[in-house]
Input
Amino acid sequence: MGMSDLYGPADEAESIATIHAALDAGITLLDTGDFYGMGHNELLLREALRGRDREQVVLSVKFGALRGPDRSFGGVDGRPAAVRNFLAYSLRRLGTDHVDVYRLARVDPAVPIEETVGAIAGMVEAGFVRHVGLSEAGADTIRRAHAEHPIADLQIEYSLLSRGIEAEILPTCRELRIAVTAYGVLSRGLLSGHWSKDRALTPADIRSHSPRFGGENLDRNLSLVEALRAVADAKGSTVAQLALGWVLSRGEDIVPLVGARRRERLAEALPALELDLTADDLAAIERAVPPGAAAGDRYNEAQMAMLDSERPPAN
Ligand SMILES: NC(=O)c1ccc[n+]([C@@H]2O[C@H](COP(=O)([O-])OP(=O)(O)OC[C@H]3O[C@@H](n4cnc5c(N)ncnc54)[C@H](OP(=O)(O)O)[C@@H]3O)[C@@H](O)[C@H]2O)c1
Output
């Protein structure tokens, strides 16, 4: 995402070099959205995958978010006709004949999830999609979607600072044997150990509208990061590695996405796979950043309202 949109300027050559470095290191899962830079991210992946073995890569693609020429966001479209249309364009931009996991980015309140998932299932039958996924869906929606067609995985924010899925969503996924792709594992950089109060944010950077990145909330959140840094120092790791290692420790069914945009960041992230966190380490990490410690919601009010995962359960 950050290679094409929402996190300020990115360097295209460095983005492609980072994807190559990831593939060379054995990373197989590449996540994108057709709306990341209005097609830019898919074209970037196409370029990065030129000359590579398509079968070695799992392409996870999100669709449905509507954009304007001024880069604005204008809701979501999960209608079956839209599903087929979005997919046709994505396949062309990606230069492939199939997507491995296809998912609606945000549940469309105007379209029953059965209809959207049913349309993706039709694309599975036709051979254009391998697996159906979900993004930011709540427990009820997950059950309804899974009853329509088996769901392979749910993509959702999960980190030391965002543990909301632990109450109901994660148990539901585990009951139904649905995997989780965790995003925002570094809380969009806040939890990376590289963030500071004087980092300038352009208005196009979504973090400039994020409740966690401003004012007193930022002070509070950065103090949590400093507590985590003490644990990382004692372990001989970095804050980012600890934050990634913690998510990796939560279960083999949880796959963390890494939002590295540069090779240097990727090189820092990868050793998290080898990090051996003991029960004492995990306890120290959770003392530094206890559940619910983050100051501020994970999105601003308008974006929170679009999250099916944040809706109170239906009675
Ligand atoms: N389904 C959804 O609703 C949804 C929403 C958001 C994202 N996603 C997916 O999840 C992916 C990751 O999300 P994210 O980018 O927000 O997550 P993230 O990994 O929490 O944050 C990435 C940010 O952390 C910074 N960072 C600092 N040290 C890093 C390190 N060692 N390794 C990696 N990053 C480091 C990066 O910094 P620099 O500024 O230095 O590059 C980048 O700005 C996205 O690319 C997208 O595919 C899905």
The chain has a mean pLDDT of 97.
